[in-house]
Specification:
The chain has 141 residues and is mainly alpha-helical. The protein has one domain. Helices cover 82% and strands 0% of the residues. The protein contains four helices and no strands. It has helices spanning 7-46, 51-74, 83-110, 115-138. Helix 1 (7-46) runs antiparallel to helix 2 (51-74), helix 2 (51-74) crosses helix 3 and helix 3 packs antiparallel against helix 4. The mean pLDDT is 84.
C-alpha cells in the first residue's frame, strides 16, 4: 500500500510553507521599514533627536507593528499571542535594534556612507537576524 504522503512530499510542503512565511515576513518587513524610516525622519528632522537615539525609537515603533502582523499573518500564531511571546519578540527586536543601530554607526559615522544607504545596509542585517530568530524561536511550532 502506498503512503498517502511520502517524506519527500512532506519536505516539499514544509519548504513551500517556509517560503510563504518568508514572503509574508518580507512584506511585513517592507512596511515596517517604511514605518521605521518615517519615524526616523520625524524624530531626527522634526524633533531634532540624535540619530542613534532616533533610530532605536523608530525601530521599536516598527517592531511592535511587525510583532502584531507577524503573529497574526506571517506565522499565524494568534493562539500563542501572549505576554511571553511579546517578551520573546522584544528580546529578538532588542538584538535586532543593536545590530541596526551598530550598522548605522559603522556605515554612517565611521565609514561615511550616505545616511540612508547606511540605514538600508543596517536594516538588511537586522532583517536576516529577525527572520531566523522569529521563525525558529519566537513563533516555532
Amino acid at each position: 500500500m502506498k503512503k498517502l504522503l511520502s517524506s519527500e512530499k512532506i519536505n516539499k510542503i514544509r519548504q513551500r510553507k517556509v517560503v510563504r512565511q518568508f514572503v509574508k515576513f518580507a512584506i511585513v518587513g517592507a512596511t515596517a521599514f517604511v514605518i521605521d524610516m518615517l519615524g526616523y525622519v520625524l524624530f531626527t528632522r522634526y524633533f531634532l533627536i540624535h540619530h542613534i537615539v532616533a533610530k532605536v525609537m523608530s525601530f521599536f515603533v516598527a517592531s511592535y507593528y511587525s510583532y502584531e502582523m507577524n503573529s497574526r499573518w506571517s506565522f499565524r500564531r494568534k493562539e500563542l499571542r501572549s505576554t511571553k511571546l511579546l517578551i520573546k519578540s522584544y528580546i529578538v527586536q532588542c538584538v535586532g535594534a543593536t545590530i541596526n543601530a551598530s550598522g548605522l554607526y559603522l556605515f554612517f559615522d565611521i565609514i561615511g556612507y550616505h545616511e540612508f544607504l547606511a540605514l538600508i545596509i543596517a536594516t538588511f542585517f537586522s532583517t536576516i537576524w529577525n527572520f531566523i530568530m522569529n521563525k525558529f524561536w519566537v513563533y516555532r511550532a
